[in-house]
Design brief:
Helices cover about 15% and strands about 55% of the residues. The protein is built from six helices and 23 strands. It has a 21-stranded antiparallel beta sheet that branches. Strands 21-22 form a two-stranded antiparallel ribbon. A hairpin with a 2-residue loop joins strand 5 and strand 6. Helix 4 packs antiparallel against helix 5. The relative contact order is 0.05.
């Protein structure tokens, strides 16, 4: 009798182990949990229709739960459809044994979605001026996202959600004046925090790089901060006019080419007002052509029609409405290259300016002082 009982117990243990191994390795497919998963997704919005295929269930024996996965899920709202790559969830084994279905976690992975269609879908659910404005600005682009959501004991979504993904080939048209193209970046969104990394942008045919950009909610405003870098950013007179929207500002600049590394931060409120702007920039001015409209030939006999700033290094700091600019580099006013340094400080509505010009191998005439400098000497003013 004892042998029979022992064999039966061993056989039962072996069968349980085989079942656990099978469920942990291959799992099963069923439609049993479709309604419950649909109900949990509807917690996001009750008017969303959820189309689910068969659900695959894999046992996680070490955490006493089932991992649930379904492919090819569709979300429908009116005539709009969003296709998802997969939906994953976790079901407590204890609750299932107690016949109390409860999802503790939901992971949603999207397919590559066209951003304009995605915005239109969200506008149907909850429309606002921001989404309308965004839909008009974005001309094309694609998004892939992974959404992680946790539920509390009564099935409500917790605030510790996490959304990660990537955006590719976005084109944004700002009133046909400014164009962002080939916008690519990865992102992470949490409650009150938006993080964007490795953003590459073509702005009006110029390449820009945003290695880091974030927006964090602070009461009734957002703190925006990040880094912006560029190489060989070039603007001609036409592009400068379009950017500045001015016929006179920078009108004497013929061409400009520069590299820069910029760190910035500011607060922006609900009315899009910017406060507490802070900016730190290191600029390498490779070339700047400036149209000479000054009557300087009396002082500089070989004055050119255009001034050229070359290999100029500029440091800009702006904080608490105080501006500091320090720069040094080459300048061509006449035939040969000279050296120039400048320091500008704007604080409490006062502007402090100092500059020095080292004239090298170029002539200088100061008739009022009866002074003339020859080409083979140097002079600092």
């Amino acid at each position: 009798m004892n042998k029979i009982l022992l064999k039966t117990s061993l056989l039962l243990i072996i069968l349980i182990l085989i079942l656990i191994i099978f469920l942990s390795t291959f799992g099963i497919k069923t439609n049993r949990f479709n309604n419950q998963i649909s109900a949990q997704i509807k917690n996001i919005n009750q008017n969303i229709e959820v189309s689910l295929k068969e659900v695959s269930i894999i046992l996680d024996p070490f955490k006493f739960r089932f991992n649930v996965k379904t492919l090819g899920t569709k979300l429908k709202y009116n005539d709009k459809v969003i296709e998802l790559e997969n939906v994953k969830s976790k079901i407590s084994l204890k609750n299932l044994i107690d016949n109390k279905f409860s999802l503790t976690h939901l992971s949603i992975s999207s397919k590559s979605l066209e951003i304009k269609n995605l915005i239109s879908f969200f506008r149907l659910i909850k429309d606002n001026s921001q989404l309308f404005f965004l839909e008009k600005l974005i001309k094309k682009g694609y998004l892939i996202a992974d959404i992680d959501i946790e539920f509390n004991e009564i099935g409500k979504i917790k605030e510790n959600y996490n959304i990660t993904g990537s955006v590719k080939d976005v084109k944004v048209d700002f009133f046909k004046k400014y164009t962002l193209e080939q916008l690519n970046f990865i992102f992470e969104i949490k409650k009150d925090t938006f993080m964007f990394n490795e953003a590459k942008i073509v702005f009006n045919n110029q390449n820009l790089f945003l290695p880091e950009f974030s927006a964090t909610k602070h009461k009734n405003s957002f703190l925006i901060s990040g880094f912006l870098n560029n190489k060989n950013f070039e603007l001609d007179k036409k592009a400068l006019k379009r950017l500045t929207q001015s016929n006179s500002l920078y009108s004497d600049i013929e061409n400009i080419n520069f590299d820069s590394e910029n760190k910035f931060s500011f607060f922006i409120d609900k009315k899009y007002k910017i406060k507490n702007l802070s900016l730190s920039s290191e600029i390498k001015l490779n070339k700047l052509e400036y149209l000479n409209k000054f009557d300087l030939i009396t002082f500089f006999p070989k004055t050119k029609e255009k001034f050229n700033f070359l290999n100029h290094k500029i440091k800009i700091d702006y904080k608490n409405k105080a501006l500091k600019i320090n720069g040094s580099g080459d300048i061509r006013i006449q035939d040969k290259i000279d050296k120039i340094n400048e320091n500008i400080e704007n604080k409490d509505k006062n502007i402090i300016f100092s500059s020095s010009l080292e004239i090298i191998d170029n002539p200088l005439n100061l008739n009022i002082l009866n002074f003339s400098k020859s080409n083979d000497t140097s002079l600092i003013i």
